Amino acid sequence: MLVCVVIPASAQYTYTDSIQWQTYEDFNKVFLDTKKNIYRDHSARVNAVDRWNGAAAIWCQAIYYDMVQNAYRRAEAEGDEVRMAKYKALHNKIYKGEKAQYVNFNFDDCNTNTGWFVYDDIMWWTAALARAYETFGAVEYLRYAERSFCRVWYGSAIVGDDGSYADPARGLGGGMFWEWQPIDKPNPHQPGDFRSACINFPTVIAACILHQNVPEGRTEPTSARPTRQTKEWYLEKAKEIFDWADKTLVVGGRVADGIHGGGPEFKDHLYNQATYIGAACLLYKITGEKTYLTKANRAATYVFNSMCSGGILPWESGVEQGVYAAIFAQYLHLLVYDCGQTKYMAYVKRNLQWAWDKRDQTRGISNGNFRVDTEEGSQIDSYSASGMPALMLMFPMGDSTSGLKGVDADNRDAALNSIFTLDGKCVARQSTEQELSQLASGVYVQGKKKVYVR
User: Fold this and answer.
1) Residue 147 pLDDT > 80, yes or no?
2) Under 8 Å CB-to-CB from 258, ≥6 apart: which residues?
3) How many CB atoms lie within 10 A of CB 49?
4) Is the peptide bond before 221 cis (omega within 30 degrees of 0)?
5) Which of 113, 116, 190, 107 is nearest to 151 (CA)?
6) Beta carbons within 10 angstroms of residue 303's beta carbon
7) With contact defined as beta carbons under 8 Å apart, do 394 and 71 qualify?
8) Measured distance CA(303)–CA(321) in Å, rounded
9) What is the pLDDT of residue 21?
């Protein structure tokens, strides 16, 4: 066991914990429609009316909804009761706004303006709503999460589709289909229909979160289209879909965009890498099987070695594609903090510093391309702007010891002697040899300094 004090992060980087919080505030100031409490698609918009008039894409709204939950979770980890109250209140407003905008989460409404007409749009919201239940505990969030998952899996009797699940027993080959067509009068799926990474791995993620949160002892449903499932069923399906997608869409950590019935169609997208990482990490956490962690590391290594230039994350200019970095933040966090893979922190910090340096210094927002200056006052889409604050929220600088979870604020000596994870969780009170021997290798915080435990 070797513990070495390293140079404090503040000596190497100019962004701080307070700056990280401010980037999220600035994002909301520019893009959140505070009358409807949903997000606008770009900075020049006054109102977010609907899909055709100013509202960000329905699936990206789910990513922004994740961000307010992440703000609350970080505040909770840091024991910051003021921010906890603030972001819980903001979450409640956004939840109500999103629900009202999107037909009260009626996932059988397939109108193409404010409704649900692609499977992956629904599944992004499934994961976000399941996290909301995990974060705040309101049963309503879990109910909508399960209904939306089952609607995707089994199809809708109202819409008439046969569901996203490419059931091998029906000769469909396995995995998950991306869409149903035509939207209002669907035909049965065929084996060659598109099965994309962006529905398969989010399905695994959602199933894992549901498995972790639904109660034990449920009776298996008998309906052909149930609205909820058992704890065991969710994990079984998570494993099945991951196994199919991993074998079919992934080579050496590189994730294909999808398959139409032939071979995998490779085009590198950061969000596909991200959800593969997230799916593998969650299955590793649940099962303890190290092969999942190995796969997650391969995918992250592919991102930084093959998709980045100089370690800076790739940016795609196809409007909604700008949100990919925010999704990457969500799931790289799992790999770094939940799975102890702190080796990626140097890449993260480099990206955050570049993003901060290249921001519009008046509005505090980024154009998403961390290598290029954000022109002051220019029109920026919320998708691209989300990357910097999402990463900032998920990867605390750790320069502040105020409000660290589990520490008596009146006992500063205890705070300085204790050891914390980078997101503020106390893991060792006395720093004794016995306590240190129980820590996983990685980077921690002690007395405003980073320590490396090997």
Assistant:
1) yes
2) 178, 194, 195, 196, 197, 198, 249, 264, 265
3) 17
4) no
5) 107
6) 23
7) no
8) 16
9) 98
Q: Which of 142, 143, 145, 167 is nearest to 154 (CA)?
A: 167
- pLDDT at 414 exceeding the cut of 60: no
Q: What is the DSSP letter of 359?
A: S
Measured from the Cβ of residue 338, the count of other Cβ atoms closer than 10 Å reads 12
DSSP 96-154: HHHHHHTGGG-TT---TTTS--SHHHHHHHHHHHHHHHHHH--HHHHHHHHHHHHHHHH
What are the structure tokens assigned to 293, written together?
A: 């962690």
Which pLDDT belongs to residue 446?
Answer: 72
How far apart (Å, rounded) are the C-alpha atoms in residues 320 and 303?
20
Closest CA to 445 of 398, 411, 404, 396: 398
- Between helix 231-249 and helix 270-287 the angle, nearest 10°, is 130
Which sign, positive or negative, has the C-alpha torsion 371, 377, 382, 387?
positive
The three-class DSSP label of residue 21 is helix
Write out 380-432 in H/E/C secondary structure: CEHHHHCHHHHHHHHCCCCCCCCCCECCCCCCHHHHHHCEECCCCEEEECCCC
3 has which bridge partners? 453
Residue 451, pLDDT score: 64
| pLDDT (0 to 100) of residue 449 | 59
411 — pLDDT class (breaks 50, 70, 90): very low
- Express as a percent the part of the chain with pLDDT over 90: 84
Q: How far is CA 91 from CA 63, 70, 87, 104, in A?
A: 13, 10, 6, 16
In order of 300, 337, 445, the CA distances from 294 in angstroms are 10, 15, 26
407 and 360 Cβ atoms separated by less than 8 Å: no
> Is pTM beyond 0.85 here?
yes
Q: 335 burial class (0-12, 13-18, 19+ CB within 10 angstroms)?
A: buried
